[in-house]
UniProtKB/TrEMBL annotation:
<protein>
    <submittedName>
        <fullName>MFS transporter</fullName>
    </submittedName>
</protein>
<feature type="transmembrane region" description="Helical">
    <location>
        <begin position="163"/>
        <end position="185"/>
    </location>
</feature>
<feature type="transmembrane region" description="Helical">
    <location>
        <begin position="360"/>
        <end position="379"/>
    </location>
</feature>
<feature type="transmembrane region" description="Helical">
    <location>
        <begin position="334"/>
        <end position="353"/>
    </location>
</feature>
<feature type="transmembrane region" description="Helical">
    <location>
        <begin position="420"/>
        <end position="443"/>
    </location>
</feature>
<feature type="transmembrane region" description="Helical">
    <location>
        <begin position="129"/>
        <end position="151"/>
    </location>
</feature>
<keyword id="KW-0472">Membrane</keyword>
<feature type="transmembrane region" description="Helical">
    <location>
        <begin position="211"/>
        <end position="230"/>
    </location>
</feature>
<keyword id="KW-0813">Transport</keyword>
<feature type="transmembrane region" description="Helical">
    <location>
        <begin position="385"/>
        <end position="408"/>
    </location>
</feature>
<dbReference type="Pfam" id="PF00083">
    <property type="entry name" value="Sugar_tr"/>
</dbReference>
<dbReference type="GO" id="GO:0005886">
    <property type="term" value="C:plasma membrane"/>
</dbReference>
<feature type="domain" description="Major facilitator superfamily (MFS) profile">
    <location>
        <begin position="33"/>
        <end position="474"/>
    </location>
</feature>
<dbReference type="InterPro" id="IPR036259">
    <property type="entry name" value="MFS_trans_sf"/>
</dbReference>
<dbReference type="GO" id="GO:0022857">
    <property type="term" value="F:transmembrane transporter activity"/>
</dbReference>
<feature type="transmembrane region" description="Helical">
    <location>
        <begin position="75"/>
        <end position="93"/>
    </location>
</feature>
<dbReference type="InterPro" id="IPR020846">
    <property type="entry name" value="MFS_dom"/>
</dbReference>
Length: 482
């Protein structure tokens, strides 16, 4: 009869380390790492949203003949190509993270993003502005996939969506900073609530948009310097046959967890695939497996359709409202106040996101978005009603993002998790670009109600698709995706 391995050797083996990691019920890394990762996400979403209010000034400054009323017609190109950059970045760079590590690629992607933002700040003309947006998109597309993979792999099993949402709070703050800075630096002073009395744009200061991208580059530099401190994902280390390094990290995590209470015994029922090294071409792991092919198609459709709503509001809300005859400062105020809904909704979700399965949040998100859009449409001259509607819109269309981030990362195995996330979320960003491109010419010919209902309706379709996704809440990652 073969000798049984000692408890110590079993705990230090690859499956044993994963079993020890899975038993942790609380966040067991330094809470400072949440701030570090969050700062990167703050910049990422700052960059996504900084074009919202500021683009009107950018267009007028860089493109001959552009006016606030016609700026919406010029918005689709930088938005679509920025999102095309997402696709290129996520498809090319995200699989590299499955090969060289999550932490190393987090440094590279943030550096690319910062350089793109710096290029934007000094863009001499509209063509260079668009090119800079592509470069920034390359970095952001890959960064989103890798951050969500990393958080998913180091978070405690009962709270993966909660910690994804906690990181997402920083995204909301970044979005809010991007929108409000745009309002301050790129719109002219107007009496509240038709604008900001202390806005600084005017004939003597028509390049506030450049300052916005310069600030973004500085935020990216800070994020790069801080990310150097992050540990590597233990799951990835094990898949690369670097168990001693993974054991050291997990032992530190266990020590932190013991301060919060006794640890449960490890469950050594870990699939052998959990320690399978990533192939040279991670895409092969996914496309040769019927389970993962189905998940890719479903989650891609979900993100593609949902992002039509998200990016129409996130990148184009001010331009959309201006095309619907709102004065630009007032349109900017409505969008800026809406960002409080983004922050508030994300904070609330941190406490409740684990109460429901991931897929059940999407219908709730769609309903909140539709209610907000309806209030804006019927507000007329009642600016307070429009502001409440904007808060609900931003809270609604972002309500589904963090649980769907968690769901997408959970649906793929460690050996190709970043690649899988890249395929569904990264490539799904094409929907945001196509949506803005296709919808923008139609909106001026619709009523305000018709335009906003059209934009919001895509989130309803995404919510229906989400109901066909798997149950993942509180399950072992390697059982969800063997």
């Amino acid at each position: 009869m073969a000798a049984q391995p000692s408890t110590d050797s079993r705990e230090r083996s690859g499956p044993g380390i994963i079993a020890r990691l899975e038993r942790l019920q609380v966040w067991s890394l330094s809470y400072g790492f949440i701030i570090i990762i969050g700062l990167g996400f703050l910049f990422t979403f700052y960059d996504i949203f900084d074009i919202n209010v500021s683009f009107i000034q950018t267009c007028v400054d860089l493109k001959p003949g552009c006016t606030p009323e016609t700026a919406l017609g010029s918005l689709p190109l930088p938005v679509v190509l920025n999102l095309a950059g997402y696709v290129v970045g996520t498809l090319v760079l995200s699989p590299v993270a499955d090969r060289i590590g999550r932490r190393n690629m987090l440094l590279i992607t943030m550096l690319i993003t910062g350089l793109g933002s710096l290029y934007n700040a000094f863009a001499p003309d509209y063509a260079n502005f668009v090119i800079a947006r592509v470069i920034t998109g390359i970095g952001i597309g890959a960064d989103l996939a890798i951050v969500n993979t990393y958080i998913n792999e180091v978070s405690p099993r009962p709270a993966r969506a909660r910690f994804t949402t906690m990181i997402f709070i920083n995204s909301a703050v970044g979005a809010m900073i991007g929108i409000w800075l745009g309002l301050i630096l790129t719109t002219e002073a107007e009496k509240w609530p038709l604008g900001l009395p202390f806005a600084v744009a005017g004939p003597a200061f028509g390049n506030g948009w450049r300052w916005m991208y310069g600030i973004g580059a500085l935020l990216a530099l800070i994020a790069v310097l801080l990310r150097i401190q992050l540990p590597e994902s233990p799951r990835w280390l094990i898949a690369r046959d670097r168990a001693p390094e993974a054991d050291h990290i997990v032992a530190d995590m266990e020590e932190r967890a013991r301060h919060r209470g006794p640890l449960a015994d490890p469950d050594y029922d870990i699939p052998a695939s959990a320690v399978t090294p990533p192939p040279r071409v991670p895409y092969s792991t996914l496309f040769t497996n019927p389970l993962y092919r189905r998940r890719i198609l479903l989650l891609f459709a979900l993100w593609f359709i949902g992002y039509i709503t998200v990016y129409s509001y996130a990148s184009g809300f001010t331009s959309v409202l201006s095309a619907l005859k709102y004065p630009p400062p007032e349109a900017g105020v409505i969008a800026a106040v809406g960002s409080f809904g983004f922050v508030g909704g994300t904070i609330v979700m941190t406490f409740i996101v684990e109460k429901l399965e991931r897929r059940y949040w999407l219908p709730i998100a769609a309903a909140v978005t539709l209610i907000g859009a309806f209030l804006i449409a019927v507000a007329g001259t009642q600016i307070t009603v429009a502001l409440i509607g904007s808060i609900l819109v931003f809270a609604g269309f972002n309500l589904w993002v963090s649980p769907t981030y968690a769901l997408s990362a959970e649906c793929f195995p460690t050996r190709a998790r970043t690649t899988g996330f890249a395929l569904v979320d990264g490539v799904g960003h094409i929907g945001g670009g196509i949506g803005v491109l296709a919808i923008a010419p139609i909106l001026p010919h619709l009523s305000t109600l018709g335009a906003l209902m059209l934009i919001s309706s895509f989130l309803v379709i995404a919510a229906v698709l989400a109901q066909f996704t798997p149950h993942t809440r509180a399950r072992n990652l390697d059982h969800i995706s063997p």
